[in-house]
């Protein structure tokens, strides 16, 4: 069965964006791009909220076409074009979208159906609103966090409105030269 892995950049104090959605504090470089590229190249399904999907759709389909495209732009653009995209939205319409599945309601049943399909894990990119919804529905199986060496003090938290404790098991860590630390967790079901 496929797992949903939430992929997020996060501040040291637990925010995924500033109060107005700012992400200018996120540190990325070629070392991180190469590391992430290896992991996501194995994925066949990407999950987004509407806002993140629209940001991705406005950039990645043509990112490789630029004469100044980086290695990361070329590789990620190629992956983005082929990956199956699932979008959580109550307002988007799915007509004419290639390789895009829109979930407008009955999220739990539809996500569980997608998890039963053949293939690799489902990568949930950014999308704090969608992430909060999926956490409340107990649908996220792991967290792939990139902790940035910054304290924001306020913003959009990764973990909001959590009612029950969520136990995690640390799989791997990686320290990048730029100061970002990767933490890779899965749910710890051993205590259930």
Automatic annotation (TrEMBL):
GO BP: riboflavin biosynthetic process
Listed InterPro entries: DHFR-like_dom_sf, RibDG_C, Riboflavin_Biosynth_HTPR
Domain Bacterial bifunctional deaminase-reductase C-terminal: start-end pairs: 3-180
PANTHER family: 2,5-DIAMINO-6-RIBOSYLAMINO-4(3H)-PYRIMIDINONE 5'-PHOSPHATE REDUCTASE, DIHYDROFOLATE REDUCTASE FAMILY PROTEIN (AFU_ORTHOLOGUE AFUA_8G06820)
Name listed for the protein in its UniProt record: Bifunctional deaminase-reductase domain protein
Transmembrane regions listed in the UniProt entry: none
Source species: Pedobacter heparinus (strain ATCC 13125 / DSM 2366 / CIP 104194 / JCM 7457 / NBRC 12017 / NCIMB 9290 / NRRL B-14731 / HIM 762-3)
Entry superkingdom: Bacteria
GO MF entries: 5-amino-6-(5-phosphoribosylamino)uracil reductase activity
